[in-house]
Amino acid sequence: MTDTLALIPAGIDTYRQPVIYMHEDCHICRAEGFAAQTRVRIDLRDQWVIATLNVVARGEWLAVDEAALSASAWSAIGAKRGDIARLSHPEPATSSSRLRAKAYGERLTEQDFASIIRDTLDHRLTDIDLAAFITACAGERLDDAETVALTRTMQAAGETLDWGGRTVLDKHCVGGLPGNRTTPLVVAIVAAAGQMIPKTSSRAITSPAGTADTMEVLAPVTLDERALRRVVEAEGGCVIWGGALNLSPADDHFIRIERPLDFDSTGQLVASVLSKKAAAGSTHVLVDMPVGATAKVRSAEDAEALMARFLYVGEAIGLRLALHLSDGSAPVGRGIGPALEAADVLAVLRRTAGAPKDLRERALDLAGKLLDLAPQGLCQAGRARAEALLDSGEAEAKFLSICAAQGGFTEPQLAPHRVEIPALSDGVISAIDNRVIARIAKLAGAPGQKVAGVRLGARPGDRVSRGQPLYEIHAATPGEAEWARGYAERHADVFAIAEEPE
Predict the structure, then answer these.
(1) Which residues contact 335 (CB under 8 A, 6 or more apart)?
(2) Domain 4-88: CATH class, spelled out
(3) Could you confirm whether domain 96-156 is CATH 1.20.970.10?
(4) Domain range annotation of the chain
(5) Is 129 annotated in the active site?
(6) pLDDT tens digits for range 23-34
(7) CATH 3.30.40.10: does it fit domain 417-498?
(8) Which residue in 104, 203, 233, 477 has the most C-beta neighbors within 10 A?
(9) pTM for the complete prediction?
(10) pLDDT by residue (tens digit) across 389-406?
(11) Active-site residue, from 112, 170, 252, 264
């Protein structure tokens, strides 16, 4: 057949974007008019995938009668080296007109969103198409009804866990606050209290660490549904990465585009969070919303609008929702980055003398409110119960049991390269810029390098002297350490230091 080629693995990880590599002299490229960035349908036995074409100039690694597939494309069709696949032009995405409609300000229906989600999962939409959709929905361009419709269609596109009518507690933070790693603590406390809390978490989108990134330092987080159920039935809770469970799978595609764009929209944020909570089988959900000038939610007015959207959508899809406003003016804990945040979590659980008090107090507040939210809640006594479980060591024991059930506990390690950044003047720290300090941690290698990040040596309200270390950059390589140091030196005002009154 003239429209077939032998397949070989390219050995290239393109994350969730299927890519096909073809030689520039390939007969199919010439006959079909395929060019760089063309969308190509690949059929193999009873599987198919749509991939983006990269054209290979003359070279020895790819023959003219072969096509190489990226890791995601190879996996999608279950290919084996030497398989013969049929290549063709795919049918146009049926949702293209709805994308254009949204870009011009039209409201979309549940049917419209379902079409977009379907084409997203079938890879019929290019990254440019998805970027246009995300941009067209940014800010307040999704109203309440559209957000409900998007949430429902995102959930319906994947699996939904069924826990047999039992109460399932859950917690989510909208983000934007470095080091705010309360989730593992909340899960340990709530599970120790005898409640069910199967926590599925995400990896970092625009931050130096997501909950799954931090938890992965301590225990395996890539569990399938069977393993998830085994852990939860044994321990009452877990902290795992949700990406392996096909819960609201379109969201993972949107996140891949949002990461380089470095922004969220209100409607898509709510749809992302609540579609995954509903898909995880949660019944009662607490949403933590840090508010601060350099947090994701910057003002009381923004918080009020976001809270209203969460409550509206939660009620519409049948979730019992509560919201918690917290201080978002500065990072939480000492560590920013997966291993450093994991060390903070363990310090709180182990009740060590140097454990960060702010992380402990936030975790107790959230665990207490979540215990109060349960149908057999403790009527405002949840926080006292949470504190007793933490102080007695029961939460620590439960956390270690959860880690063991997920595959085994591991102590976090320190980075081999560390650089101290000193204060340039005497005074009192009045503020820390959340966004800049997070950027420094990312330049140091977080979250890709688990040991990378920033460890804070001072906090708002502390008096410091010129030359005193404000924070320490942790990196896995000297190059990343120097890269982060250079940025830090150009942004010395990340710590605002006010002169002490005479």
Answers:
(1) 179, 341, 342, 343, 344, 453, 454, 455, 456
(2) mainly beta
(3) yes
(4) 4-88, 96-156, 169-244+280-406, 417-498
(5) no
(6) 989 999 888 888
(7) no
(8) 203
(9) 0.88
(10) 999 999 999 999 999 999
(11) 264
